[in-house]
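Predict the 3D structure for this chain.
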Amino acid sequence: MAVKGMSIAKKLRMLRDKQNWSQETLANLMNMHHSTISRYERGKSIPDYQTLLRFAQVFKVEKDYLIQELRPHEHISAAPGFIAKESQDDPDFTLIQQMLQTEPALKKALVELYLMPPKRRAFFADAIAGLIKVNKHHKDKM
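Done. Predicted structure below.
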């Protein structure tokens, strides 16, 4: 392959590991079977262009980071890193990012929440907001 750098298989595995997701979790996010994820990560299959675009959306990376290996004749001078698409200027995002790094159980629970159907997800989001409100109310009375 003319393009130097990491293979698609290695990139997908690295991105999944960075999120601390199981193959099953990623498969649910991608709406595919976990064995397909396994084949992609082992290099036994190569995702098509549309699937790579979906991976880029799920991992929140630039599409070129994943699709450059599909264009072996293009010369890429430097191997690009992946870039988060969220605004780093948002102070709430910074706090959330710090909390997710220190609370892996919360991160896993939020991924599970994301995978729920919209009505169920809304129910649990409201329940969590309610619990936090009750906690704050009781804390203020102490």
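Confidence is low (pLDDT under 50) at residues 73-86.
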